[in-house]
Amino acid sequence: MFSFFTRQRLIRRGLASAKWRRRLRQSEWLDSLKCGGLARWTVIGGLALVLVSLVSGDCAQPEAAQRLLVEFFVYVLAVALVWMNHRSVWSDNGRLFLLLGTLVGHVWAVRCVAAGAQEAVAPAFAEWTGADRQQFWSLMVPYALGPMLISVLLGQRLGIVLAIFGSLFGAMLNGGLDARFLVISLLCGFVGALTTRDVRRRTDLLWAGTLVGGATLVLGLLLGRAGGFLGEQSALFSWDKLAWQCGAAFGGGIGGALLISGILPVLEGVFRITTPITWLELADLNHPLLKRMTLEAPGSYHHSLMVAQLAEAAAEAVGANAAMARVCSYFHDVGKLVKPEYFVENARHGRNAHEDLAPTMSALIIIAHVKEGVDLALKHRLNREIIDVIQQHHGASTVYFFYRKALEQQEAWRAAALAEGEHDEEPPEVREESFRYRGPRPQTRECAIISLADSVESASRSLDKVTPHKIDQLVEELIQKRLAQGELKECDLRLSELTEVGESFKRTLRSMLHTRIAYPKPVSSSGRSSREERAPVRG
Q1: Structural domains of the chain in order of their starting residue, each with its CATH number
Q2: CA-CA distance, 52 to 68, in Å (whole number)?
Q3: What is the pTM of this model?
């Protein structure tokens, strides 16, 4: 409150700006809730109690204590597997809660459908035996609900982990271990996780649900959970029953896919996860910020499109998130909208806006486009991943052009002072920190690729005569320079992947900067070009 009045007093005196720039705010309480050990073990312990109570059922049965112990150790094994192989999920309590909570929800859904087999009796099933109804409801079990959801949100590997432990807990629901349920659930869960590896459209979820339904039906027929034409019940086979069972199998798979499609946007917003589906939706070039760039900063807009092409191809080459690289490249320079004329790609009629500015002021304007970009991204509620790329794509590099200009002015001042015989006054100090971006350095592979693509695309515009050799030399020099400066040491981009990124840049630049054939001018029948014929005759 007191800082507000102090700021207003400084504004009235002309010592502060009235503009408020939005910034990413850090909260110690939120950080402890997201990454703290107490919150993590509270999540693990609370969900363990819920899951064991769902699976155990009646504790008065014989050997109930042993069953509880087995269920507890299976849960501990699941948590240990996440701790050993998925450290990014383990260190994020929100994602850990999503994973274990989905496991609990998956087991709860299986239990509800299993209970429906005992209680629900529809008129169409009046002539069916108890075994027929049990077969029907066993095909309705959402075997792949949890694996598909986690595979879309957190990746295929975690989807397979959930398929394994969801199948184990589901097989222990009715006491003992149902071997046929375990096999069907495992295989259907694997099918669900594998078919949702790279979901780019919501129709892909329906296709995955259809494949899960087909797998459920085939396994049910082979293992005696459907059909009735195998074994001792072949005399009771009925096409009507088979049709109902086919509907149940495909209904369970497609129904689970529709449920996932509906709740996916909610989970993405709550847990701050961006799926490939959302990345493709964000790739729409009709976003207000991008439309502003086409009018106010067309050079920066074209530069962003070229960076997106470079970054997407390089991300695909190393198995990174190509859709994320493309979308983040579109927005990485939106901060230039505040003062577009101070960036060379937006200069019009050859005018240089930095001619009358000191190098320190020019560098301040250039560096400020990062903070201005974060401000605009927060105002338009862009994803956190996009904001991180805006903030990190220059890392802690130096605005070298203006730093070099400041050094040259300092040397010129010293030379002039020496010529005039003035030795008392010292030239203005030139500090490199004044010409350096504030960082942080790129933290992810996608951000590192965008950072490299940004510098490569900008530098390629300065090539006088484009040749494959010059392109290769330029890319290698820039990558080596970034490595020497330590700009890539905080991301998980390996040296072998960096080589593939460089090769991808070279291929893309060769196609982007190709030369054209100089076509001859059309010549008329008189032997002169059409332009010469249109020109007035001067006597």
Answers
A1: 28-273 (no CATH), 284-399+436-512 (1.10.3210.10)
A2: 7
A3: 0.84
